[in-house]
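User: For my dataset I need records formatted as: sequence, then structure tokens, nothing else. Please produce one.
Assistant:
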Amino acid sequence: MKFVNDCSVNWNVPITWVEYRDADPAFVVVNYETASRNGEPFEALIRKRQYLPNPVTRFCTSELKIRTIHKYLKSTGWTDHNETMDWIGMRADEQRRAAKIADKSRMPLVAAGVTKETVGEFWRNQSFDLELPNINGVTYHGNCDLCFLKGGSQVLSLIAEKPERGIWWAQMEALALALASKPSGAVFRSDRPSYKSMIQFAAEQKDMFDPNEESIACFCGD
């Protein structure tokens, strides 16, 4: 959130902040000062759906990001909102992901041959960045902090580093347990322990995942 605001301030670029709401028109325009800090829009969506998103049904991406932006654009009278969403920041070294959406998206960074090394060099020449640990062009702290698409070992290490990260995720599993009509709807992943369990494992300094497990690609165009 701070990074987005830094982009606006340092580059003098106006940014419209939009959040999902469970009420017409299903979005609200906020700003850096008033934007939600504790996952409130995501929780509202879970309460509406009464079950949790998972790797197969990733409604968090479609509802909180894509459809919310579409609805905002329509409210402004913009008629080419689909064209606007067609530009994707995929890099040239993400060929497998790029190939999946090549027929429906424009990827200027792929066309220009931009790789994670190019991106890293760009940010080294800026006065600000994400301020997150970066290992060979990859930051495991990026996107949703404990996203269920991240590898289990990665999530566990992030919880061990900062246990309070797991609190919101465990609370959402508890909420869904009370709301969901099926047990499968009360977990983000059926193939791994709950976030509550991972908080406990991290506190006990236990290893419960294969450290070589890959994360699932998390991208709005997937």
